[in-house]
Amino acid sequence: MDEFSNSEEEYSSYWVEWFLQTKGNEYLCEVDEDFLSDRFNLTGLNSFVPHYSMALDLINDNFGNDSKKIDDETKRVVDDSAKKLYGLIHARFIVTARGLLKMAEKYRQGDFGRCPRTLCKGACVLPHGQHDYLGEGKVRLYCPKCEDIYTPKSSRHSNMDGAFFGTTFAPFFFLSYPNLIPRHNPNDQYTPRIFGFKVHHSAKVHRLQYRLMAPEFQLQARKRLGLEKPRSVEAPALGAATARAQKGESSPSAMN
Q1: Checking DSSP bridges between strand 193-194 and strand 148-150, what pairing results, if any?
Q2: What angle do the packed helices 202-213 and 215-225 form, to 10 degrees?
Q3: Does residue 127 sit in helix, strand or coil?
Q4: Sign for the pseudo-dihedral over CA of 179, 180, 185, 191
Q5: How much is the pTM?
Q6: Organism's domain of life (predicted)?
Q7: Contact 113, 125 (CB under 8 A)
Q8: What is the pLDDT of residues 213-247, one digit of tens each?
Q9: Buried b or exposed e, range 7-41, using 16+ CB within 10 angstroms
């Protein structure tokens, strides 16, 4: 494959090292070999990626002889499966003690970037997935100071699958390392002002009342509460009875 090298030996050697050094994968840490070799840690992952066995061999650098027997198209598929498989293994590894320690080091160094919110004053962020399954969402950055998530600035980072980190990692990380949570300062909350005066809290009430009076909001609320009237199924029958009455015909029930 062109991505690796022209030689088959380099294609199948040190795949993890090559993958982690590829631009766009800076958020990932290296999964320990002991974790990769323990099949219990990989339980169930074979149903998520095609060519699971070959992809795992590629990750573990055991793909040397097999690489000469398959065509380039299959190699591309195996390579793509290896990337997805490593990402899913990575999501499991980073919630272990060893994985948390590696990610904590990257977090302290600011490898994941800083919060774009002005009042967070450059607080470090952590990769976060909104879904645990491949293809359901891209990676987001969680800020522990404002407790919100953001899209990475770089496109090469924003295209990474969120399942490589999962929904558990970020909250579990700060549960394990509470000392890394930035201190919350009440002054970090923005206060809107008009001609130097704070906007009274009653303005929020007026905005809420205006929103509640909007027809679109009322319609949505009625649908949620099940108050929207269903379509009448008797209308066609009533229409037919009215037509017969206008023609002077009696209905079948009246004849009986």
Answers
A1: unpaired
A2: 70
A3: strand
A4: negative
A5: 0.72
A6: Eukaryota
A7: yes
A8: 767 666 766 676 666 555 544 444 445 555 555 55
A9: ebeebbeebbeebeeeeebbbbbebeeebbeeeee
Q: For 57, phi and psi rounded to 5 degrees?
A: -65, -35
Q: Name which of 81, 94, 104 is nearest 132 in CA terms.
A: 94
Distance CA 143, CA 126 (A): 7
Amino acid at 61: D
What are the C-alpha distances in Å from 148 to residues 5, 77, 203? 41, 36, 25
List the structure tokens of 208. Answer: 């809420």
Place of tokens 């027809």: 215
* Residue type at position 212: L
- In angstroms, the CA 192 to CA 197 distance is 8
CB atoms under 10 Å from CB of 63, counted, come to 24
Our CA angle for 165, 169, 171, nearest 5°, is 140
CA distance 27 to 106: 8
pLDDT digits (tens, 9 = 90+) for 37-88: 899 999 999 999 988 999 999 898 876 655 566 777 888 899 999 999 999 9
Rounded Cα gap, residues 198 and 196, in angstroms: 7
State residue 199 phi and psi, 5-degree precision: -75, 125
What would the DSSP string read from start to end of 147-208? Answer: TEEE--SSHHHHTSBGGGTTTTHHHHHHHH-GGGSPPP-GGGS---EETTEEPPTHHHHHHH
